[in-house]
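Bug: token stream looks shifted between consecutive jobs. Job 1:
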Amino acid sequence: MRKLLLVWLCVLLAGCAGMAGRDPLNVTLAGLESLPGQGMEVRMAVKLRVQNPNDTAVDFDGVAVSLELRGMDFASGVSDARGQVPRFGETVLTVPVTVSALAIARQVLSLAGGANPKVEFVARGKLADGSLGGARFESKGAFELPAGMAGAAPRQ
């Protein structure tokens, strides 16, 4: 039993050593499309552009993503998509996400309570690959709301 444990530990360490020196994947939001929802929820297809800056391909078997708007949880989703991001290449993945009515209400109240037209977002997730955790990613950004959408009407 002790020998089996030692062999397993050596295999595990060798696998971790093989991951050393790998640059993180670059994941950005490439788009959003509306999907049919149910009841009081909104469904969207989030498109993620995944770029691999490494000289070896990255295989994946499942994707999870969560979106945060203005510092508040907004949407989350998973996909059993399977594929590969080629070496020094990119691919676009589509992940269906769900937005609850409560998350929408929090955003509306946040926008109505202040005049800040800037909306910051964070997308976090992982590409599962069957190993210890897969490839995790985080993408941040911001955009300005059109005049009059944030808080009170613009001053003349």
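Job 2, same session, no restart:
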Amino acid sequence: MAPPFVKVYLASRSSRRRELLKQIGVPFEVLLLREHWSRGPDVDEAVHEGESPEDYVRRVAHEKAETGWMRILQRSLPRLPVLAADTTVCLGSTVFGKPANRHEAVAMLKELSGREHRVLTAVTLRFDTVEEAILNDNVVRFRALDEAEIQQYVDTGEPYDKAGGYAIQGRAAVFIPEILGSYTGVMGLPLYETAALLRNFQSRG
């Protein structure tokens, strides 16, 4: 029996996104983009002046997919669609990326404490000159956190590679009484929307 989804290249280092694709049976190969500081990143993940959180996350996902497609051509790899995603946490118009150090992680968690924030995940599928994309928008509510809880959580090391400095699927689950939207979208890859994107792509032949 043929697989339900077309095989793709996943342009992401995220182990969470790999596990989520496996969960819904999407066959994939990982296509790594350059992130090493000494050579510069392949994708500019800095927020541009005047860029809204929605525009930011869409742009980064688009650039990841575009760069992934260029890697396929440069390396003469088998031509398969490139799936890329980007997730960001925002309070109003302020984008919270991945904390670079302990100070930033603590500061982010203090800002999120006792408040609602949005988690945006953009997903882009690229093949040749054809590109399709979706934006998943979620609201997450944190309970009030005290200083000791924040320090203990940062001590686990979990915040450092996560947008907003936390992982809903990790120890930070105890901070979150409510979400409005997609749990997997908050994790980094909204499965319902991703599956719809893949099916729509396949239906185009």
